[in-house]
Design a protein that fits this description.
Blueprint: E1 4-5, E2 12-13, E3 22-25, E4 28-31, H1 35-46, H2 51-55, H3 65-75, H4 80-83, E5 87-90, E6 93-101, H5 106-116, E7 122-128, E8 133-138, H6 145-154, E9 158-161, H7 164-200, H8 209-230, H9 232-243, H10 250-270, H11 277-306, E10 315-319, E11 325-329, E12 338-341, E13 351-356, E14 358-361, H12 363-366, E15 372-374, E16 379-380, E17 385-388, E18 391-395, H13 403-414, H14 420-449, H15 455-465, H16 469-488, E19 491-493, H17 497-502, E20 507-510, H18 512-516, E21 522-528, H19 534-545, H20 553-557, H21 575-579, E22 583-589, E23 593-598, E24 601-606, H22 608-611, E25 624-628, E26 631-639, H23 646-653, E27 658-662, H24 667-674, E28 681-683, H25 688-700, E29 705-709, H26 715-720, E30 723-726, H27 732-737, E31 740-742, H28 749-783, H29 789-812
Parallel strand pairs: 20-27, 20-29, 27-28, 29-30, 30-31
Antiparallel strand pairs: 1-2, 3-4, 5-6, 6-8, 6-9, 7-8, 10-11, 12-18, 13-16, 13-18, 14-15, 14-17, 19-31, 21-26, 22-23, 23-24, 24-25, 25-26
Length: 813
């Protein structure tokens, strides 16, 4: 050729433009005819869609703005400013929740996970089919977010960052499409069934062959839109699976539908043989109905968790430095901003109360409907309702990292770890589909060799009757409903497989402070060394504890002082005296105490072991000691009280579990607190290492251990337990190490968790037992020809509906 063709659109490149518009595609330098084609081709390459050129069947149109626009939209998601709203940092990697459109069944989730896991740079993919979401973790150095979205699009699914409003809109779009397809299939099924049933039962009397053929043509006309439009959901699922070189439950459905449809067309054209147009319509209608009910149940379960975000108001009343108030978007608030919440308003964001006093309804988070009193320094959460009084709040977390957002994200993350039952069901259902196809082929071969004219219809019955839709729904439907129910009760799961492990727990280990007790400390007694000023020592202790996050610090920061053994009339050190002390080189030793330098003196405050002192040197049963430059100057008895529901909770748990208390407090204090409780063993004076070793020793003895704690010093032992629960207002470190987080302040949530875990296990067994049992039972009837196609349709659909309905019963209990 004397000229070159544009690699993108195929049109000739002008001689004057040769070499002017070039880019590398598929490893070679390619010529383009114009800047438009160059821009489109570069966008395709830069966004990881280079395979477009390898697999295209014809050149693209010149100035292919459609592709460029689509890729530009995806490229927008790589903008750091845009990602700030919905992308989370997970160490060295990035994590995002995506709303997925195009998911039809459990097999879709498996297909997405399998395909994305092959892509370099993607570290984890977890698809929650029930909620139509995906949690993806990736390395930003290896792959861009836009490339992940384009990969999803290539396999037939639309992915967009999860936003509650948009997610709800997506659900409504899918529901509208479902209803259109279901409505069309339902109307046509009634018409075709009336027509064909009349022919089968001779309701029209002795009609001529021409009239009968006319009815067949009418039935074919009515059936065609059902097959081509209503049934398209299943064909797209089958195509996606086959293009990924695998099979799913949509494959036998597609074969059965088109096999029956084409056979009906053949019989109608040749004017001989059977037609089953009514069976096709009924099959598609009932299958769509079962999936629509599944779609509704998924949404109902997902709403309980995701709808928490709908409690968060869009706007907030921001208090400016000059005292004026302005309305701003809640998601635009940053840490340090001050907002005003009036009586009856919803708190827009997580923060700390600066001024005011009010009762706050936190039921949307904790499931507890008793309002919580909030005052200065109290922590409040976005989405909770200020019932009375006004609060001035300092923002401590942006909306992206607010508790309600964290709950939704952790719920999706929890589904990344599937229980063994779910993994077995997923694997079994895929093998079962292959088995169904093989059995169907063998059935057709056998009956054909026997010379049966019904060989084809018997094969169709086998394909339809044994479709493993119910098996694919058995586990995920039960898990999603259970997690939604627990979330409604203020119990947040970080791992879905934790539910499975809860059912095997034999021993429950409990921390004392903040777990069995309220964590609200008071100074019961104090002791001071001879010649030491009590007020100065209390001020010194207050200065040190003001830097600590441990609950014990609250005992020293209160405004009242107990009577002492050596200084009966000692008064609380004035605040200004405590503030006069400057603490430097502050350190925290989990399970030991705190240390700091004050006025060039090394101060230690904590346990006797940490402070290296002899407890017997003081005349009170102290559990907190204060030393200055190694000299013991003060000692304190800090008391706590049991939670109101501790006794009731432990009475319930002790009926089926061994209860062990692991505490860093003195053995005497532990014994005093637990003597009236149904505790098997109480161990005090334990450092974090000793707590850890105690749990490991119990596990070595074959026990399955659940650990409940709330402090920084509980993190190691929480991480080592088979199931870890962070109780009440646990520290962030404890929540990170835990598998389950109790959002409320009620220990009675733990028996509820255990009860729900056993119910889920029972439901999963029931669902799998029913799904497998039905398929095994119906297979002989289908293979032997005793089951007609329409019977197979009804049985298969009812099987799926029964499984979904059984799972949704968890929500109401």
């Amino acid at each position: 050729m004397s000229h070159k063709d544009c690699y993108h659109c195929g049109l000739p490149v002008a001689n004057s433009d040769i070499g002017q518009f070039q880019t590398v595609v598929l490893g070679q330098q390619r010529d383009m005819c114009c800047p438009g084609c160059l821009a489109v081709s570069e966008a395709i390459v830069n966004n990881g869609l280079e395979d477009y050129y390898q697999f295209r069947t014809e050149p693209a149109k010149k100035s292919d703005d459609g592709i460029l626009t689509k890729l530009d939209k995806l490229a927008l998601f790589d903008d750091p400013a845009l990602q700030e709203e919905f992308v989370f940092d997970e160490g060295k990697h990035k994590q995002i929740q995506l709303t997925l459109e195009g998911i039809t069944c459990a097999a879709c989730g498996w297909l997405i996970e399998k395909q994305l896991s092959k892509v370099g740079g993607i570290k984890q993919v977890a698809v929650n089919v029930q909620e139509r979401r995906a949690l993806i973790t990736w390395s930003e150095l290896e792959i861009k977010l836009s490339q992940i979205l384009s990969t999803l699009k290539r396999i037939g699914y639309e992915g967009s960052p999860f936003q509650p409003d948009e997610h709800e809109a997506s659900y409504k779009r899918e529901q509208k499409t479902f209803l259109k397809k279901l409505g069309l299939a339902g109307i046509m099924t009634m018409q075709v069934m009336m027509l064909m049933t009349g022919l089968y039962f001779d309701w029209f009397g002795a009609i001529e062959l021409e009239t009968k053929q006319y009815f067949h043509w009418v039935a074919l006309t009515l059936t065609t839109p059902v097959v081509l439009y209503s049934g398209s959901t299943f064909y797209l699922g089958a195509v996606k699976a086959i293009s990924a070189r695998t099979v799913n439950m949509d494959v036998p459905v597609t074969i059965a539908v088109f096999g029956t449809y084409l056979a009906g067309i053949r019989s109608t054209l040749l004017e001989r043989g059977d037609v089953y147009f009514e069976t096709i319509c009924m099959f598609i209608f009932l299958l769509l109905l079962s999936r629509f009910l599944e779609h509704r149940s998924r949404h109902r379960a997902a709403q309980i968790s995701a709808n928490m975000m709908q409690h968060v108001p869009v706007s907030a009343s921001k208090l400016l430095t000059d005292g004026t108030i302005t309305d701003v978007l809640a998601k635009r608030l940053v840490v340090g901003d001050v907002v005003l919440v009036k009586p009856g308003e919803t708190i827009p964001i997580d923060g700390q109360v600066l001024e005011g006093r009010a009762s706050v309804d936190e039921s949307m988070l904790t499931g507890e409907f008793n309002p919580v009193s909030k005052s200065q320094n109290s922590v409040v959460y976005g989405g909770t309702v200020c019932q009375d009084g006004s609060l001035t709040i300092s923002v401590t977390k942006t909306l992206k990292h607010a508790l309600v957002n964290e709950i939704v994200r952790l719920q999706s993350s929890a589904m990344a770890s599937k229980p063994k039952a779910a993994q077995l069901a997923d694997n079994f259902s895929r093998y079962f589909v292959v088995a169904v196809l093989v059995i169907s082929a063998c059935t057709y071969g056998y009956w054909s060799l026997q010379g049966s004219t019904e060989a084809f219809w018997i094969t169709i019955s086998v394909l339809v009757a044994t479709c493993p839709c119910a098996l694919g729904l058995a586990t995920p439907s039960a898990l999603t409903c259970a997690m939604a129910k627990l979330n409604r009760q203020g119990i947040l799961l970080k791992r879905a497989d934790a539910l499975e492990q809860v059912t095997s727990i034999t021993t429950i280990a409990l921390d004392k402070t903040g777990t069995l007790t309220k964590g609200k400390f008071t100074l019961a007694q104090t002791w001071f060394a001879e010649g030491v000023d009590a007020q100065t020592m209390l001020a010194l202790a207050k200065a040190l504890e003001s830097r600590s996050e441990h609950p014990i610090a609250s005992a020293f920061l209160k405004s009242t002082s107990p009577k002492t053994s050596s200084e009966k009339n000692a008064k609380q050190a004035p605040d200004d005296q405590a503030e006069a002390f400057t603490v430097s080189q502050f350190e925290v030793t989990p399970g030991g105490g705190i240390a700091g330098v004050i006025n060039e003196a090394k101060c230690l405050m904590g346990t006797a072991l940490f402070c290296d002192v002899a407890p017997q040197n003081v005349n009170i049963d102290a559990n907190v000691f204060l030393t200055v430059n190694g000299q013991l100057l003060a000692a304190f008895v800090v008391n706590d009280s049991l939670r109101e529901d501790t006794q009731e909770t432990l009475n319930v748990l002790s009926q089926s579990h061994e209860l062990v208390v692991l505490s860093g407090d003195t053995q005497d204090n532990v014994n005093t607190l637990t003597h009236s409780l149904p505790i098997t063993k109480s161990l005090g004076g334990l450092t974090p290492d000793k707590k850890y070793n105690a749990v490991v020793e119990m596990q070595r003895q074959g026990k399955k251990v659940m650990m409940m704690g709330d402090g920084i010093n509980d993190a190691p032992v929480l991480a080592s337990a088979d199931v870890a629960i962070a109780v009440g207002n646990a520290t962030d470190v404890a929540k990170t190490a835990a598998d389950v987080i109790l959002l409320g302040d009620q220990l009675l949530s733990v028996p509820q968790l255990i009860e729900t875990a056993h119910k889920v296990k029972q439901k999963i067994r029931q669902n799998i037992g029913w799904a497998v049992g039905y398929n095994v039972l119906v297979l002989p009837f289908a293979v032997t020809g005793l089951l007609s196609p329409w019977m197979a349709v009804v049985g298969m659909s009812l099987s799926s509906i029964i499984v979904v309905t059984n799972s949704t019963r968890l929500l109401g209990k």
